[in-house]
Amino acid sequence: MAEYLIAVESAVIREGSRRHVIHRNKTVVRADDPIVKGREKLFRPLDRKVMLGSDVERATAAPGERRAVRRRPTQDG
């Protein structure tokens, strides 16, 4: 399993002819990603406990499982 890193500051990185925008505390990359090489100070290891936190809503249901979806309140009440 690959180690993941998270950006510790925002920056624009040029890798060859491509431009990558990274955002502090939002951009997650693999440790072996070419944009990390030589720019290690811009990243720190990502705590997987934070990434897999229980407060994150699941986007899909497992096969045969129904998602609990909250309905938006109507203007009537």
Question: Which structural traits does this protein have?
Answer:
77 residues, mainly beta, 3-stranded antiparallel beta sheet, two-stranded antiparallel sheet, 5 strands
Could you describe the 3D structure shown?
By secondary structure, the protein is mainly β. The chain has a domain of 48 residues. The strands form two sheets. Strands 4-1-5 form a three-stranded antiparallel beta sheet, with no helix packed on it. Strands 2-3 form a two-stranded antiparallel ribbon.
Briefly summarize what is shown:
This protein is 5% helix and 26% strand.
Task: Describe the secondary-structure layout.
Elements: E1 4-7, E2 11-15, E3 18-22, E4 28-30, E5 43-45, H1 48-51
Antiparallel strand pairs: 1-4, 1-5, 2-3
**What Rg is obtained from the alpha carbons, in whole angstroms?**
18 Å
Count, helices: 1
Give the biggest sheet.
3 strands, antiparallel
Number of strands: 5
Average pLDDT works out at: 80
Distance between the termini: 49 Å
